[in-house]
Amino acid sequence: MSGADFSHRNDVGGLFRAHYPWLCTRLRQYLGSASSVEDIASDTFVQLLESPAALSIREPRALLTTIARRLIYQRWRRRDLERRHLDQLQQVERLSAPSPEELAQLTQALHGLERSLARLPGKVRATFLLSRIDGLTYPQIAAELGISQRSVSTYMTRSQALCTQLIANQSLNPLLLTQRSA
User: NCBIfam families, alphabetically (predicted)?
Assistant: First the structure.
C-alpha cells in the first residue's frame, strides 16, 4: 500500500466518522427501512473509498449526497426492472397455464391417442413419434428407421388419419398434431 492510498483511506475514514450519522438522517427521507438507509450510506463511503485519491473535498456533504442519490436511483431502477420482469413472468404463466378442465380433457385425449397408437404397427408408430415428439423431418426419420422417404410419408398419412379420427371422436387439441415435417 502506498502512502497516497493510506492517506486516502484515512481521509475517507475521517469523513465517515464525521458525516455517516448525518448522511443516514438525510437518507431516511428517501428510504423507508433503516437497513436500506444503512446500506446506501455504507455503499456511499465504499464508492468514495474506491474512487481515485481526491486532492481535497471542499463540500463533503454535497459529494456524499450526490453519490448516495445515484445509489438510490440505481436501486429504484433495479427494483422497477425486477418488478416489471416478475409481472411479465406472472402474466406468461397465467396465459399459458391451462384450466383444470382443459388439463383433464387433454389428459383423456392423450390416453386415447396412446391407446390408438399402440394398435399401429411398430414402424408407423415410430414414424409418428419421431415426427411429432422429436421433431425430425421425413429424411431424418427415413435415415433413423432405415426406410424410404415414401414409406415415411405413407406412415405419416396413416397415423394422421388415425389422429383425425380421434379429433372427431374426442375433440383432441389439434395443436398436438400439427405437421412439423419435411
Answer: sigma70-ECF (TIGR02937)
